[in-house]
Specification:
The chain is α/β, with parallel strands linked by helices. Among the domains are: 135-244, Hypothetical Protein Tm841, Chain: A,domain 3, CATH 3.30.1180; 259-303, no CATH class. It is 33% helix and 18% strand. It has nine helices and twelve strands. Helix 1 crosses helix 2 (73-86).
Amino acid sequence: MDRTAGIGELRVPTAIAVTGADLALPPQDERTLPAVVLADLDRQPLEQALTAVQTLVEQHGHVIVLYSSAVPAAVEQRLHTVRSLLESDRIALFRPDLPPLAVAVLARQLRQLASCDLGPGVVASAGRLLTHYLHAGALLGSVARLDRVPGVSVKSHARSWVPGSQFGVLAHPQPQLVRATPETVLPGPEFGTWLLVARGQLQSDWVTDALAPAWKAQGLRETTLPAESADWWGTGKAIEFCAYLPDLSVLYQLVASVRQGVCHWCGIDVIGDRCVFCSATPPPAAELTARTAHTARALTTGD
């Protein structure tokens, strides 16, 4: 049963933006909102970038921008500059510790949730929550330049110099590296997922013929390898993959089951311990108690 069937849609849904067209995956279902692509931010005049983002805020109320750690430094700097100049706490910049394909998957999941009657703070906070349900990795022809995944030993690096070697690397949730063989796979999710695969300059059926069956993938789709993946993995000889929850009803149930709170700084509804929009964290318990007591006195005395 679709648990989102009775959920009203927001008149102006929160905008979900990405920094490249290859991070704007096709819709997962008929309710998935289109992604806003903020391309070439580092190459366009600052005034043009400011106008584009300000227009989004005016049209949607809130904007959530997702980007990977492999994005050019100039793009990330431009994002922070735009947010600072607009002096807006309605713009959330979210850089999850995930490979580029997984960032694209997460952005699409937020696009699904943005179609529901969820506040922008809850949608933005859901990004951190849903990260825990992604299994992201790649099949690589070399790990000699792999430096974004912790736990890859010097010995593993040395083995990558053997001609013809291929390695399965799990970057999230638990980093792991194995020599890819038909009998050797990576630990996968313990719940039903779909698998998205993006092929780079590597010829292999290991992901589709060995990994997908071992992970009991309920569905498999292929897409274009994001431009930033070669930098993230240290090689263009890669086949990137990400296992994810595709159903909006499941995503909504996960988010709705988490207790919501109110950001003490900007007043927006959030889940978790940090507001993605204003970056405020809950005040210390003593301060919170004092504020609560002060508010109670003000309500009873009329001060």
